[in-house]
Structure formats: structure tokens, C-alpha cells
Specification:
single chain, alpha/beta, eight-stranded mixed sheet, 11 helices
Length: 287
Amino acid sequence: MSKALVLGGGGPVGIAWETGLIAGLAEAGVAIHHADFILGTSAGSVVGSQLALGRQPDAMLHAEFAAAAMAREAQAASGRPAPDLTPLMAIMARRPPGQPMPVELMVELGAFALGAQTASEEVFISGFGALAELEHPWPENYACTAIDTATGEFLLWNSDTAAPLRLAVPSSCSVPGIFPPITIEGRRYMDGGMRSGTNADMARDHGKVVIVAVMPPAFAPMMMPGLDREMAVIRDHGGEATLLVPDAACGEAFGLNLMDSSNREAIARAGFAQGQAEAARIGAFWG
């Protein structure tokens, strides 16, 4: 039975938590990172691409600790607050509850992304470190998500597409209003999380699916209907799905802004502890 790991979006907070969570599970002997298929959206595209390229969870966790320290120092030195998600959330809030994002609203998000004052594409891409610097071959078991800013079309980047990994992952992370849309083959792409925080229905052809959703308690009313719908799609295709969301300790560490890098180390450590605590449940499901 094929197994899929779905890693959802959630900014730097999501990267820290997912990295810690997977490392905690791995430390406890549950290797969900050895999935037959890894699907990443936004933050999950970063974590997922590293796993698909063969990086070990413990090494990723230690790298996250180092990145967290650098981010904290940079934020303190700049004196700038964390990015403001209010304008983006005002558009997202008009999505009908529990329903897919209407195309016209997706196009509006695209226009908002294109019109925002952000860093250049080159500067944004350079922030992805080794992924941006090297032309990695596309891992056969990996896919990430993006949205065409002009049409609102949802894209699944994988080994069958023309998108290079070094551009596909940043495109999946291009939060409208915060980061620049990424140019691939003459078109501009933004964060796949605008369709769904997880896009777990794209893993519907797999028998067992672990969905990792960056869903703080305050986000549950907005996110859970969509997650229920996506898990129903997986079940309708004959698969099983289980959900991992932040526990109370992680939710407390997250803070109110998923784009705030100041507490990443504590979030990663809380994720690691949750991974160890969830190992028995996830291990029994994963097999």
C-alpha cells in the first residue's frame, strides 16, 4: 500500500514546527519521511523538498536551530516587526466557509500579489540557500503547489513539469503581499496555500496519507471544513488519512503571526516533543 506525506503551509513557524515534528517521530522510530509521495505547500514545500532530496530529519532540526538563531538576530538588528498578514487575511476571509476558493477571488489575490511592494525575485530566491544555489534534479516522489497569478489556476509542480526545483519551491512559498510571485516559463506564480493550507486531496491516489496541517487553535474554524473535505476525497478514492495538528504546547509557542521568526527554536523543540508523543499513534497508522 503506497504511503503519502502531506506537509501544509504556515510560514517560518510552520517550517520550524514541521521540522521538529518529523525529527521527533523519526527519533521514536516512525519514518514518515520515507513516504512514497511527499506533497508540500508553502512552508511544507521547503521541508518536503529537503526530505525528498535525502536530508535526514535530525540534521534538518539542527539546521533549523541555527537558522532560528540567525533569524532572531536579524529581526532584532533590523528593528522591523514581523510581516503584516492583515491585508491578505481580509481577502481570504471572503472565501465561502468550507468551500473551494472561487476563481475570481484567486485572481484578485494574484493581482494583489503582483501589485505589492516586496523584495525582488532574485533576493527572495537567494534566501532558500543551497536549494537556490544548485540545480537539483527533481525527486521522483515529490510535488509542490502553486497558483498562476493571472488566471488563478492551481499547479502541481512535479518531475513531469518544466519547472526547476530551485524556482518551484519559492513559487509555492510566495505569500501574496509579503513575497514576490516567481517567474517560471514567462508566467508568475504565488503560494499554493491560497487554494488550501494542505491541498491533501492531491494525495488521493495513495493508500495511507499523513496530513501535517499548521493549524493553531484560532485557525481551526477556518481550516477544518476544508481539511474534512480533503480527507473525504482520500477516503472516496479508497485511502485512509490521519491528521497531525499542533498540540497545546506547540500552539502556545506559535504566537499570533505565522510569519514571525522570533520564536522558531522553541517552536521546533515543541514540535520535536509532539512528534515523540504522537509516535505510537502515527506508527500504528503508518505501519
